[in-house]
């Protein structure tokens, strides 16, 4: 009889818990994502839970942290996919998943609570590392596409188009990528009534990337002084190509240093084993 009562109480508790979670999901406001980008894959998998926590844990995100996340998401090109609160909720969900993984590992390994805490902390900061790597890859793609885009912009301006028309032609003739997304955003801002100089400055502030800042500064200076943009843009294209070449040269010089670790820990031991094994066998056979 006591076992039956315990089972009924447990079933009732589970039903109440499920109903509470369902009520929370129903009360969470829906978000209109018609004009927004798709969230990253890991966020899409757990999107209902992330959206729920984003509306429930807003009090845990300070104004300073929200501004920092806004800037980081904008630089990574994720500002139309995630809000700062959704990104913070993703970090919380990641920490909970890390804690569950730590519980599983603590049952296999000795360490108990310390393993759970360490894995949960690593999982909490993993979205920040992902965002930083996404920003790095995006800036690299922009750096690669920038010289060719400036060349097309120069040709269009020298053909008689103004800066906005030249940008439209350069975007139409260029391959898609992060740079084209940002330039299209500049053109949309100009069409919406924003001054071209302000739109360019917003473009530079969004990326906060030195080559783009230099490029925008040259365009703004040329617009203000009324000078010909052709020579300015040619100098910018040459400078961007020089920077890209210097970066490739730097990476080539860093390659031998990066190879030392694999050489020392993986290749050299195998080589020494292959060379030393016959010598050791001869010593053993001779009784030494």
TrEMBL record:
Origin organism of this chain? Diaphorobacter nitroreducens
PANTHER family given for it? INTEGRAL MEMBRANE PROTEIN-RELATED (PTHR35007), PILUS ASSEMBLE PROTEIN (PTHR35007:SF2)
Cellular component terms (Gene Ontology) = plasma membrane
Protein name, as recorded: Tight adherence protein C
- Give a yes or no for keyword ATP-binding in this entry: no
Q: How does it sit in the membrane?
A: Multi-pass membrane protein
Would you say which domain of life the source belongs to? Bacteria
Q: Does Membrane appear among the keywords?
A: yes
Q: Where in the cell is it found?
A: Cell membrane
Give one Pfam family: T2SSF
The Type II secretion system protein GspF domain, residue ranges: 149-275
| InterPro entries xrefs | T2SS_GspF_dom (IPR018076), T2SS_GspF_sf (IPR042094)
Q: Which UniProt keywords apply?
A: Cell membrane, Membrane, Transmembrane, Transmembrane helix
Membrane-crossing residues? 7-25, 45-65, 86-105, 111-131, 260-281
């Amino acid at each position: 009889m006591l076992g039956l009562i315990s089972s009924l109480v447990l079933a009732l508790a589970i039903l109440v818990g499920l109903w509470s979670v369902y009520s929370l999901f129903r009360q969470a406001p829906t978000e209109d994502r018609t004009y927004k980008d798709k969230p990253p894959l890991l966020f899409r998998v757990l999107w209902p839970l992330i959206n729920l926590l984003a509306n429930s844990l807003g009090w845990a995100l300070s104004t300073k942290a929200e501004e920092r996340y806004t800037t980081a998401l904008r630089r990574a090109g994720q500002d139309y996919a995630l809000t700062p609160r959704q990104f913070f909720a993703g970090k919380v969900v990641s920490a909970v998943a890390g804690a569950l993984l730590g519980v599983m590992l603590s049952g296999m390994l000795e360490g108990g609570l310390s393993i759970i805490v360490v894995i949960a902390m690593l999982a909490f900061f993993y979205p920040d590392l992902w965002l930083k790597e996404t920003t790095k890859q995006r800036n690299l793609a922009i750096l690669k596409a920038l010289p060719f885009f400036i060349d097309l912009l120069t040709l269009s301006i020298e053909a008689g188009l103004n800066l906005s028309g030249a940008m439209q032609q350069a975007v139409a003739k260029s391959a898609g990528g992060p740079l084209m997304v940002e330039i299209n955003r500049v053109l949309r801002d100009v069409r919406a009534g924003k001054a071209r100089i302000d739109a360019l400055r917003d473009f530079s502030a969004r990326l906060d990337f030195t080559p783009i800042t230099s490029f925008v500064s040259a365009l703004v200076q040329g617009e203000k002084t009324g000078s010909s943009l052709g020579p300015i843009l040619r100098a910018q294209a040459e400078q961007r190509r020089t920077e890209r070449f210097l970066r490739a040269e730097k990476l080539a010089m860093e390659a031998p240093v990066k190879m030392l670790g694999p050489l020392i820990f993986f290749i050299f031991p195998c080589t020494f084993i292959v060379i030393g094994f016959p010598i050791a066998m001869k010593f053993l056979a001779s009784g030494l």
